[in-house]
Amino acid sequence: MRLEELLKKLTQTKEVNRQEIERLALDATAHMKWVPNPGPQTEAYFSPADEIFFGGQAGGGKSDLEIGLAINEHDRSLILRRTNKEADGLAERMAEILGTRDGYNSQKGTWRLPHNGNIVEIGGCQLETDKQRYKGNPHSLICFDELSDFTESQYVFINAWNRSANPKQRCRIVGAGNPPTRPEGLWVVRRWAAWLDPKHPNPANPGELRWYTTGEDGKEIEVEGPGPHIINGEYVIARSRTFIPSQLSDNPDLSATNYAAALAGLPEELRAAYRDGDFSVGLRDEPMQAIPSAWITEAQHRWTKNPPHGVPMCCIGVDVAQGGNDNTVLATRHDGWFAPLLVIPGQETKDGPSVAGKVVANRRDECRVVVDIGGGWGGEAYAHMKANGVDVASYMGIKASMSRTKDKQLKFTNIRTEAYWRLREALDPSQPQGSTIMLPPDPELVSDLCAPRYEVTPRGIKLESKEDVCKRLNRSPDRGDAVVMAWHDGYKVSQLEGGSWKGIKGGRMTPKVIMGRAAARSNRR
Length: 525
Fold this sequence. Notes:
Helices cover 31% and strands 21% of the residues. The protein is built from 19 helices and 23 strands.
């Protein structure tokens, strides 16, 4: 009987047969330095997936799984934590499991295991550029401990060297961790959306395999089975992926201790993430986070698939990418309701006319279009739409602002700060009658809006630069910027008695919005 079958039987058999099953399991594992616990740890250990996310509750044996696979199954392994100090803790745990430090080079962080010759490298990747240290070094097993602490680019870059020259050696990637508590970690939910995102159109069960590869536009796509698939005229093989949830109760080494009590004593948002393994919990806000994550979550809970009846499209915010790896994003708004964001690869919007074409194709009710011209990317698109009679406004975040906060107490240092703060004020649930903003469910949008931080200076409120946000996210916060622009400019709409609507722009009243075909024409300035 195979080891996998024996371990599964331990969770299914009656007590009368349990001792015999345990004896068989012990005999079958006598040569192994580490054996997975019955349950999810065993399922992850034997999963055929090329890429596994093993996570959920703290204390579920995630780190031990990585170490066990490296010791038993792989000729050359890399196990990473985000910092070198954290990596030292993994080395200590590995010494406990092995019962010796023989073969360990503490200067290089490398083990050469005496009993089978396997090489295990344990290291950190604290800075974004530290990923270059692992370039070109093949490992049949690559593990990321506390996965959401890493950036997505670190994860993708390092995994490019998940390979082995030995044709009999299996290769795999294991990410282990709890639900992300910071916006920088939300990429994990997006990458495993089929298992973790409740809004996913085709949800997957725990342990179920799905296959992914890179599409013609350079973006990841889900495909049916391993293939081969024809992409850009070439045959490619897709890699499989799965998510297996872990629980503290599955780990007898910790479940019998007072660790559960320690988790129960955490603050509410951390308790839900670490003790309960709940991927739908709110993020832990930074002290000077511009927009509270709870307000964004509430706005998403208010969202409906369709805009309020009869409310015209008021604005489109356009964050432009001309070529490159970034996206052009269109955020369309009907008063406080935002449509699902239209995300277009930058390769499809290489010049102003192509950007303008995408905007015009999605524009309704002759609404205003707001284009980010900072950095010069959107200038050509703005000029092209302006020349063709589109009601278009330019947005340059670095320009000085002459406005103040809603309570008139503080100034803004620039337009970008003002725009983000205006959305913050609109999302504030404590205002009279609460907030009416409705944001579409989109993990990357949450990450973008939660990321910017601010400070109060003698000149007023100052939002951190977009460049600093890009460095922390390791990408452009284009979805958040598009939503912010759409709210900052364009028309605000309020219902009047009798079912008619009136548009409000910049604090000034505009002509009444008439329902029907003439609605947008009457809203033009």
